[in-house]
Amino acid sequence: RATLLLSRCLLKMVKGNIIVPEDILNFCCNGLQGSTSPPRAREPGEREEAPGAMASPSAARNPTEVQMSQLVLPCHTNHRGELSTGQLLKWIDTAACLSAERHAGCPCVTASMDDIYFEHTISVGQVVNIKAKVNRAFNSSMEVGIQVSYEDLCSGKHCSICKAYATFVAQGPLGSKVRLKPLTPQTEEEKIEYSIAAERRRMRLVHKDTLKDLLTSSPQETELETRDGSGAVPAERTRVESVELVLPPHANHQGNTFGGQIMAWMENVATIAASRLCHAHPTLRAIEMFHFRGPSQVGDRLVLKAIVNNAFKNRWVPVVGVPFPPSPRPSAPSSLLSSSMEVGVSAEAYGQEMSVSRRHINSAFMTFVVLDQEGHPRTLPMVAPEPGDGERRYREASARKKIRLDRKYVVSCKQTEVPLSVPWDQSNKVYLSYNNISALKMLVAKANWALAREKEKVRMYTLEEDKFLSFRIEMSVCIPASRAFSLLSNLRRRHEWDSHYVSAELVQKVDDDDMIYHVVSQKLRNENKPQDFVILASRRKPCSKGDPYVVAFRSVTLPTHPARDEFTRGETLCSGFCIWPESEEMSKVAYYNQAMPGYLTYVTTNVAGLSSDICSTFEACEKFLLKNKEDLISRLQDF
Is the whole-model pTM more than 0.85? Predict the structure, then answer.
């Protein structure tokens, strides 16, 4: 088609007695090949090469996926020849924004960024590879997942740097919000990210409340161990203030300052503040979840302020699954030592030199360490906070550290790296609830479920993985999905249809979505006493059309309910119900379970057809639902 258009233009030029250069004539005569030589005929079966070095001839890519590769040059690095974290943040934000705009079809701005943990530094001469794609679109905002790795061109080595999640908002004319089209995930990985994105969004919305609740429940007389400590550095000495003028290269096509540019400026002043405490060159290890409060434009002056809030001494960090030793030893692995400092940074904008009011753009909290020649964290000086606001920031830094560890080790780690019964604590309730729901959603989104048995309306599927055998059992029931959701989320009524349950006592109502039960079940074979469980039950309504109602179960540990001699303490890692509306009066009800060792024989016996106990139990569940679907109490329990 392009050749035809060029030929028509050429004909007009000839008719108009316009002299046509020879190279244009050759270009038109030989087609769009980029040279005057005739096109090479492809061999039979040979595929046309996709344009661009990043293109893959295999399966079709996600249409929102953006890939960026950057060679680290000396201008991008610090004095150690390592890539500046601020420069990396600019690249991350740019790639994520391009992905968001691909889906939205209009300009987008950065609204927030989740925690980022930097696992390695990147040296000059290495290549940074960034992949970003939209995980899920909500009304006017969308979550973009970003994966960052580096590539050593000499050795061919690839290594992961970090994984991040950013939220972008689509903007129409004059800054108006744009309603986004829904995103349809295709692959198993995309379905998992799509499903869990709703949980991550929920966690972001309650982030401030989580910190407030922790500070409220903590003793007001929290020890300020550095107040009288010898050698403590007054926090005021680490204070930094700097101003930046927003120029056109710092902004997008709408004139709004790039979020990544603001983050780079904030990282710069935070590094200076950290250096003033340790008198060395610190390394940024993590950035706390943060939100942009408002935009800034070309011509704004950005005032950036930073101060060290707290320095955490050499202490054992309570990592999930790692025993807590009596005292640190010099030979302890450096990964278990916390020798770090938190720096608080803020950005404010004003439009004119004499302007009185300043707009709060962003606040962030960054964690730095100082590494020795072997790459191990060095001990840091103590910080002496100022009375008043300084002490408040000191305490808040300790609370944020606790929350950050909960998010990192409860939310971010793989299921196989989390012990079955995680200790329940009021301050980590948000993250345990997230882990509970997301684990079930990940199991639901798995591919390769195989039909194992079918008995009348009941279908049983299995999923065989390296470490787990999971089963799913489902049927369609004539009941509204919301009613089934209400009935099945109440464990106190489960004994009415599940003969394995003897009783379920509500121990603690955490909130409307999370409850903790003490469950007693029947004796297992070869056991002379019944089992008991302490179970966290988390439930969620659909986030958008097409989502199921979810009720998830997992074991937790409560100090008030330790293991007792009269019971065998059982544990469940991941189980629960998903309920999909099929019509106003019909629902598909599915139960999922990752079989634990003590339960495995029971499951395999049913899968092999040597027992129909599981199918019979699910048929009893159907009768229970039908019997109680008009129950007035159930209606009142709907929320």
Answer: no
